[in-house]
Input
Amino acid sequence: MKIAAALLALAATMSATPSLAMPSWMIDKAAVVKPQGQCYDTNATPEQIVASCTAVLRQVEPEQKFKVLYSRANAYVALGRYEDGIADLDAAVSLEPDKVFFLALRCRARTQWGQEFDKALADCNAAVQAEPDNARFLNARCVLKLRMGRYPDAASDCASAYKLDPSLAQALYAGGLAKLKSGDVAGGNADIAAAKLAAPGVAEGFARYGMTP
Output
């Protein structure tokens, strides 16, 4: 169940929390036949993905539905249809309760939505507890805590995420914001400047959700 490149990176490139791309164990293109193949097409628009995945759900076997629900949920989140995305993730979790990946994605969706932070934190905590060295799970929790105003905790999670994966400019930027809000002006400004240098446009991704210096 491996392919040459990741099939899904559906969130905007400069999103505050980077896309949680579909893991290789989840991908099975043989389960989808054209014209519904846009469900997993990274070049398709979110609207096309939603329409395609909706059609796919009517034709795949029950054991394959959680993969399609993931793809449609990610597209719903990209469209700002957070409640629809969360509903799909609820269904995916019910089908595959041991896949903590879905918990992290549901945490991320609620963080971007700006609602139900307690539920989001429970999901992120469960994901991080299951995979404590997963930098993207830690980054998702970091951004959630930043939105919750839990700045020291956010800075700690961001630092851990960035240490595990120095390519995560979002973690560096979010950590900088958390440091600023905690009173560490020099440290915060340094991290923010470094993140902007590494990923021009990263600030805009956070500004869309009201997270600014």
